[in-house]
Specification:
The chain is of the alpha+beta class and about 575 residues long. Among the domains are: about 350-430, Sulfite Reductase Hemoprotein, domain 2 (Alpha-Beta Complex); about 435-575, Sulfite Reductase Hemoprotein, domain 1 (2-Layer Sandwich). About 35% of the residues lie in helices and about 20% in strands. It has 19 helices and 20 strands. It has helices at about 15-20, 30-35, 40-50, 60-65, 90-100, 125-135, 165-175, 185-190, 205, 285-300, 310-320, 320-330, 380-390, 410-420, 430-435, 455-470, 535-545, 555-560, 565-575, and strands at about 55, 75-80, 85-90, 110, 115-120, 150-155, 220-225, 240-245, 250-255, 275-280, 350-355, 360-365, 370, 395, 400-405, 435-440, 480-485, 495-505, 505-510, 520-530. The strands form 4 sheets. It has a 5-stranded antiparallel beta sheet with strand order 1-2-5-4-13. It has a 5-stranded antiparallel beta sheet with strand order 3-14-15-12-11. Helix 11 (about 310-320) crosses helix 12 and helix 17 packs across helix 19 (about 565-575). It starts with 13 loop residues before the first helix and ends with a helix. Bound molecules: siroheme (SRM) and iron/sulfur cluster. Iron/sulfur cluster (SF4) binds next to loops.
């Protein structure tokens, strides 16, 4: 492993010490798992992330837990499954639904990176939970932590020469960049009573040939898109591949690097950033170049300040030419320049479409990715019926929704019937603004949430639907993305409209991004109370209707007008005459 003396700041962040001392992600997780407590200590909490789980507490139960004299917080765990390209079987989805009912909080969340999250898992059930996910041949390893996370790729099941190639690359990259430590197996899969640790002697090259014992400075994200379809938002990833297609076949990829959205508004040194185009790689070079990118970040990324530790800051600070030269050095040969190919459309894959093999897939819009059952709507029950009766292959989208694949023509009506039977709307019955909206988890589980997000967005969309209908804009396609804090988990910073929780009950309203994901939005108004969000946007919708050119999108229009003009329209519309 090369040394990283060029970049290590004088003082390493405390998490670096924890990783170094962890013996390849073991720490004292094993001992703590065996102890009769309801939570883990500080160091193991950091290590648990690499294993795919976060210690959390129900923030709404904090007071209650203290009053009843129990531990200060009602601890439980979020468990995230890593699902490359979002591709899974009916049985794997059924297993997650069983887990959320049997040992979770009875809901399941489809994430913005094509993964699944369980919440409310008690410490005493954590091993069982992770083991049962592995029993159905999925894993939680590296779903979180300072490593390469779930690899995204367009999930559409077209039986052409393109999508399957990208989806296989997602799987291969996920496997190639997964941590090699046996700690995961020892802690979660092996009988806890049996045997020793597999760690004895050896070196980083043996245990973690790519990462070494300190893994990466920070989380690392990879996504794969194609020009016709940037449904995974490739430019927001640390590492992105855009397929270069000639005569219907993938001949390689334009590699983009240095995207990332998290920001701390009070720290000017942090900012959202879209990736830079770096180089063209052939299909044979793709995995080797990905490894080289990871290793350059490993050796030169900032390990002193976790707020500046993402790859985007290394590339911002050193420049793309420096970074490309380093990648070529680590890869061992020069790379070609990017071709002209770039993303030019975004398909959310909702509704019916032919796969190309005589069968169909149905994109089913799940509002904010949250699966629950109540007296009106029973998402879980519908999914169970569909998985048991039709056995579709399941694919999760980056817009927190589901594709039911391999549906025979004769079963199309049956599938729709199973959805309607549970009180759920078909995709075709949902307004465009709802269909193109997503929200992060936020309250009550996310420890970083400042405001509501997924629980608040549906009501806000109800109001927005009315305003858009009044303006005759209900057919417009634009993205609305909401988060409960500035970390950007629902990618608000490149959306047409981004709503970002900033202070209690108040949001920063961004506009000017694009459905294609290739432009950052800008702040239109800050600290807008939740109740006022729709009314501050209404004058913009009116101005858009009157002043747009041609088929200009809402985000394009806001960018062309500029914020001074947008605020002027707002002031004119709200002035008391
Ligand atoms: Fe995220 C942290 C949820 C996608 C940027 N994210 C968190 C944590 C783990 C909170 C924490 O650290 O305690 C959230 C767990 C909440 C809960 O209760 O479940 C959380 N992030 C999510 C998910 C579940 C949102 C969702 O509703 O779908 C997404 C899981 C994806 C997955 O399956 O892997 C999720 N997070 C994202 C994305 C979007 C993406 O990757 O496409 C981003 C922006 C892109 C990026 O990484 O820059 C994102 N999450 C963050 C950040 C800011 C990172 C930064 O560079 O500053 C944090 C905070 C941190 O890492 O310190 C964060
Ligand atoms: Fe939590 Fe903030 Fe991410 Fe939402 S954006 S899930 S509130 S960290």
């Amino acid at each position: 492993m090369s040394d990283n003396e060029n970049t290590v700041e004088e003082k390493l962040s405390p998490v670096e010490g924890m990783k170094t001392a962890s013996r390849y992600l073991r720490g004292t997780i094993g001992e703590e798992l065996a102890a009769p407590t309801d939570h883990f200590g500080k160091e193991d909490i950091q290590l648990l992330k690499f294993h795919g789980t976060y210690q959390q507490d129900d923030r709404e139960a904090r007071g209650a837990a203290t009053e009843s004299g129990k531990s200060e917080k009602a601890y439980s765990f979020m468990v995230r499954s890593r699902i490359p390209a979002g591709i899974m079987t009916s049985d794997q989805l059924l297993a997650h639904l069983d887990l959320c009912d049997e040992i979770g909080n009875t809901t399941l969340k489809i994430t913005t990176r094509q993964g699944l999250q369980l919440h409310g898992i008690l410490k005493s059930n954590l091993r069982q939970c992770i083991k049962r996910i592995n029993d159905v041949h999925l894993s939680t390893l590296s779903a979180c932590g300072d490593v390469n996370r779930n690899v995204m790729a367009c999930p559409a099941p077209y039986r052409d020469n393109v999508r399957p190639v990208l989806q296989k690359l997602a799987y291969d990259l996920a496997m190639h960049l997964a941590p090699s430590t046996k700690a995961y197996y020892e802690l979660w899969l092996k009988d806890p009573e049996s045997g020793e640790e597999t760690l004895e002697g050896g070196s980083d090259e043996v245990y973690e040939p790519i990462y070494g014992k300190t893994y990466l400075p920070r989380k690392f994200k990879t996504g794969i898109a194609l020009p016709d379809d940037n449904c995974i938002d490739v430019y927001t990833n640390c590492l992105g591949f855009i397929a270069v297609i000639r005569e219907g076949n993938v001949i390689g990829y334009n590699v983009v690097v240095g995207g990332g959205l998290g920001v701390t508004p009070s720290a000017k040194k942090t900012f959202p950033r879209l990736a830079d185009r770096m180089a063209f790689v052939t299909t044979e070079q793709a995995i080797g170049v990905a490894e080289a990118v990871v290793k350059v970040q490993r050796d030169f990324g900032n390990r002193g300040d976790r707020k500046r530790a993402r790859l985007k800051y290394l590339i911002h600070d050193e420049g793309i030419a420096w970074f490309r030269a380093k990648v070529e050095e680590y890869f061992g040969s020069k790379l070609a320049d990017c071709t002209h190919d770039d993303v030019r459309e975004h398909n959310d894959h909702m509704g019916w479409d032919e796969q190309g093999d005589g069968r169909w897939f149905y994109g089913f819009n799940v509002e904010n990715g949250r699966l629950y059952d109540n007296e009106d709507r029973s998402w879980k029950a519908a999914l169970r019926d569909i998985c048991r009766e039709l056995r579709p292959e399941i694919r999760l989208t980056a817009h927190q929704s589901i594709l039911f694949c391999n549906i025979e023509e004769k079963d199309k009506a049956k599938l729709e019937g199973l959805i309607k039977k549970r009180g759920l709307p078909l995709t075709e019955e949902i307004s465009n603004v709802r269909r193109w909206s997503i929200a992060c988890v936020a309250m009550p589980t996310c420890g970083l949430a400042i405001t509501e997000s997924e629980r608040a967005l549906p009501g806000l969309i109800d109001d927005m639907e009315k305003v858009l209908a009044d303006q005759g804009l209900e057919k417009e396609l634009f993205t609305v993305r909401m988060t409960g804090c500035p970390n950007g988990c629902a990618r608000p910073y490149n959306a047409d409209i981004g709503l970002v929780g900033k202070a209690k009950g108040k949001y920063t309203v961004f506009v000017g991004g694009t459905r294609l994901g290739t432009r950052l939005a800008f702040i239109y108004k800050d600290l807008v109370p939740f109740e006022s969000i729709v009314s501050v946007l209404t004058p913009l919708f009116a101005a858009f209707k009157t002043n747009r050119t041609g088929t200009e999108s809402f985000g394009d229009f806001c960018t062309r007008a500029g914020n001074t003009q947008l605020l002027k329209w707002y002031d004119e519309a709200t002035a008391v005459s």
